[in-house]
């Protein structure tokens, strides 16, 4: 292990040295010396050196105005390069004596455990083939890196891979070093922050780029690994049509509070996905035409192509022609909306059939080795990505549907939908859903908002079924919220089932989720309109913002238990969709641990989850890393399905109820009830500035107002920038402290030891607290916060200290992450680069708040670079 870590340190050191050379070449030796003084001062200050702290402060204070941006960029890039090295380190070449990383062992170990528990080889193979795991890629307003830089970062990782051989010649070593120097110079001379906000289409293109450059090659590689494991331990192969992991997207479909996502945008993104899918499949088919030059063929293939001397090429050229037609039509339709011609591929079976015919023919002719080459990879991509690349979800707020129906009922003269109670709404909706006539006359002219809702429904109705995922209703709270969408879709002409998914987000909504679905499943005619399982989305972000992570986590757990029970009683299959963010305060953390800690019965071979912005890049940006994360998901869902965790005892449940009650009371006492909290929050953090910065396409707020109107992402992001991390831990300090006072420490230890749900919560809490830093948070207060608000800041830092003490008492450690020195060291190494960025950000915030107008100024750019650098350095809390 020490040798592996030494190789990581060597890579980080090399990248830092080469970046330093780039600084020197552009700005001279004096600038590089300043950067080094800042870094050494930060490192010494971290170790308690007063001289180091003084050196750091003096060097930063002495920076000229035109040096602020270059210094911020330097430390931002140091952190990005450290991330690249660490990401590549997970997939680097292992020497014979070096152990495989956990991610590459996990699936084999799970299969061994399941066999030991009595599961048959045949049963395990069938279970894996039938898994339904869908990763839903979503945009993220904290992913600020430009696509051009992400590509260069990937090329840097490729150079690290090229160097990772013990037998390189002198010439080869020099060549990779030269390439690294060039790439780092390109990175340094490229602006890392976009100047304008991305559009929703830009965000979709970013998501598609991850598929094109990583997941397209990672997916078949991952499935080959699963196939080999199954063959080794179960003596069977993964079926050709198996697609245990698929991908969906919200980019271009998530219009909740984002006026920039319109029906036209959604239609454009659907076409863009079809064009890119056709281009990617074309690349595969072109290679297959080159490779499959053999002449032996089965009678079935001969029947299709006659006596062609190269039958495989003949058939694949026909497919190529149709893929060209599909690509060209989609590109043209983006401009003029033209209808598809007869040659355009419309059904995934049209893509799969010729590939399968080639595969079966090769196998029948004894050429299975050739069949199992690139042709098999192409088949698996066709099964997983198909003609539409990803399934696009649509999301809209329940209030927008209710407002549209209120306008419609008023126009029809049947009353005001907004004023009806739930029974009246359900009566109206059921009648109209059963009524064969249209709801609205052709001459109806709706308001702009209602017209947009109806236009979105028309796009959904006209899209091919395989192009769409689910229609998600945010802030759902009643059965009528689901039926309202069904009626609007019917009115738009939808004549096939489309999953309409209530999203339960607030604490109150989570607590009533079971009863809402119980009533919904009892609505006459509802289940007849269903196709597949009842999907329900669990919101992590808004529930945590509403109640704190402790009470929210317990409410999410109980909601899932209730939903499992309700669906079992109704004889309906349940699919839970987890709206987890990347950060711990939004349900983030290691996915495999989170999945295995779900309530028993809630993961029954199905799992749907959001993957967001910067975490998509960290988890799926490199093919090797993507393969590892896909294996983690598959292993965790398989284990949670076949070896679910124990249900909590009555004693554990009772204590969790007390912990949650104490936690939400403590959280809301600060966030909702403290009269100075909002003012302090806006002064102590960059919350106001985040709304101005060109991050995501969504506004930072759903509406005007206080904390309650703020989106969950900027709410957490703002606190992360100051290192107080408040949303991820506030409430735990009171709950754990009061439990200790009640003499419940023994029970807490028992829960941590034997209940995966509780252990996961404590582990995530410990990691967040290790990244929090009261000293850094104090610097923001001293420079940015009015004197009368500073006592609140000190109170919050005291609560942070109490939370750390409570976790240390529970874990029995002398320091946070004492049992995980590798993670502790990873956090510590970054502090020497993070501390200068925090100090710079404090100064930049102070200066920017003194200036009335500074858009597009170096000051604004430097501030955004500091935001990006801190987020990069803190990873899953940034």
UniProtKB/TrEMBL annotation:
GO terms for cellular component: cytosol. One of its GO terms (molecular function) is phosphoenolpyruvate carboxylase activity. Pfam families: PEPcase. One of its GO terms (biological process) is oxaloacetate metabolic process. The active site is at residues 140, 545. NCBIfam families: PRK00009.1 (NF000584). It catalyses: oxaloacetate + phosphate = phosphoenolpyruvate + hydrogencarbonate. This is Phosphoenolpyruvate carboxylase. It comes from the Bacteria. Belongs to the PEPCase type 1 family. PANTHER family: PHOSPHOENOLPYRUVATE CARBOXYLASE. Its cofactor is Mg(2+). SUPFAM superfamilies: Phosphoenolpyruvate/pyruvate domain. It comes from Geopseudomonas sagittaria.
